[in-house]
Amino acid sequence: MSVVNKTMEKFMGERVDALRRKANMTQQRYAAEVLHCSQGTASTKLAGKTRMSSSDVLNSAKAFNVSTDYIYGLSDSPEPGSQGGLTV
Known about the structure:
The chain is mainly alpha-helical. The chain is built from five helices and no strands.
């Protein structure tokens, strides 16, 4: 993974982790209900050590009612539909 990709993965993981914490959702619950994986796998994705798939991003956007553009860092507004983002 290139440096740019590592930085992007870390950014996305931090953004999703902040949403998870704001929703008072444990990492274990997030792993089971949103990513459908183990807590360990979710932990590596949230830390940016493992790439989030497009399904992970979409499921996270749905779970936290934000746009995928917000998770990808294409928008600074988490509101679905803002700045032309994909609403889910």
